[in-house]
UniProtKB/TrEMBL annotation:
Taxonomic path: Bacteria, Bacillati, Bacillota, Bacilli, Bacillales
The name this protein goes by in its record: Biotin synthase
Binding site for S-adenosyl-L-methionine: 142, 161
Pfam families found in the cross-reference section: Radical_SAM
Protein's organism: Paenibacillus stellifer
Cofactor binding: number and manner: Binds 1 [4Fe-4S] cluster. The cluster is coordinated with 3 cysteines and an exchangeable S-adenosyl-L-methionine.
GO molecular function terms attached to this record: 4 iron, 4 sulfur cluster binding; metal ion binding; transferase activity
């Protein structure tokens, strides 16, 4: 038997093992989070990201807090019980504004969880947002290699990233970390470091997706990360941190027509359909070819529900808190 075939067998076994572990921990339910991409204005300049500050061609937008609240109310009526508020690092949204928004969402949708994905802020801000009722916070570590991190993030530091993740945990958030697979210059050793870092941090949520080039970035000509390697990383993550909430990311669905289904089979157990107003969706492009940005995607919930069932899982509209809580 050739090496590739052997690898393929090993891969299949790894994914099946991770699939069983996920079933043991979470059953066949897939948690659903309504994603609201509320601003693509960003002060950072990450080399891979389509909304980096120096991409002049990005069409920038910002949703008013009332519009964000409206998205949540619509989602709530559709049955969503987690809202992920994601944006570039946009200081137009002051701590005070975010505090009132979170309190309003919690008032209108009392049994829903609020997840923030707004990047790096100071301890005071993180603490006040938590006190206002935010439950969870996503801040991918992006890569556990200090040198790779530094080369990809000219406006940020590796140490600060780790410090922010620690702070979020200490404040009491359910914390999400995660990384990209196939970043230019990333080695398999670097990916092993990602897994070791996750084991040490022990986050509640872990987002993993392939790097996909964006035409408006310096990495436009670099090859995309491998879907197979990304699936390997998802499966290994499920085995190393069995209780983690692991999304089948949009980047997986962009890399392959069945990428999200494959991720679920390899141990993922969360999906994040887009709840953003359809008019702004095409503008929140972190990478080329992003799926679910057209008119036809207005009702992501129903499309995903079908696909989840087809893949052998059940959609779970509950809050889906971390097993650690
Ligand atoms: N390819 C894949 N993922 C990307 N992200 C940003 N840009 C890209 C890209 N070009 C990921 C980062 C970020 C998350 C919101 O999206 O990991 O944390």
């Amino acid at each position: 038997m050739g090496r590739l075939e052997q690898d393929q067998e090993l891969r299949a076994a790894l994914r099946a093992t991770a699939g069983r572990k996920r079933r043991e921990m979470y059953g066949l339910g897939v948690y659903v989070r309504g994603l609201i991409e509320f601003s693509n204005i960003c002060k950072q300049n990450c080399m891979y990201c389509g909304i980096r500050s120096s991409n002049r061609r990005a069409q920038r937008y910002r949703l008013h807090p009332d519009e964000i609240l409206e998205c949540c109310k619509e989602g709530y009526e559709l049955g969503y019980r987690t809202f992920v508020l994601q944006s570039g690092e946009d200081d137009w949204y002051t701590t005070d504004m975010l505090v009132s928004l979170i309190m309003e969402i919690k008032r209108k949708c009392p049994d829903a969880a609020v997840t923030l994905s707004i990047g790096e802020r100071d301890n005071e801000c993180y603490t006040r947002l938590f006190q206002a009722g935010a439950d969870r916070f996503l801040l991918r570590h992006e890569t556990a290699s200090a040198s790779l991190y530094q080369s990809l993030h000219p406006t940020m530091t590796f140490d600060n990233r780790r410090d922010r993740l620690r702070a979020l945990k200490e404040i009491g958030y359910q914390v999400g970390a995660g990384f990209m697979v196939g970043l230019p210059g990333q080695s398999l050793e670097d990916l092993a470091e990602d897994l070791l870092y996750l084991q040490e941090l022990d986050p509640d949520m872990i987002g993993i997706g392939p790097f996909i080039p964006h035409e408006g970035t310096p990495l436009r000509h670099e090859p995309a990360g491998s879907l197979e390697t990304t699936l390997d990383m998802i499966a290994l993550t499920r085995l190393i941190i069995p209780g983690a909430l692991i999304p089948a990311t949009t980047a997986m669905g962009t890399a392959h027509p069945y990428g999200r289904e494959l991720a679920l089979q390899a141990g993922a157990n969360v999906v994040m359909p887009n709840l953003s107003p359809v008019a702004v969706r095409p503008k929140y492009t972190l990478y080329n070819g992003k799926i679910c940005t057209g008119d036809e995607s207005a009702q992501c919930r129903f499309c995903l529900e079908l696909r989840i069932r087809e893949a052998g899982f059940d959609m779970d509209m509950g809050r889906g808190d971390s097993l650690k809580r």
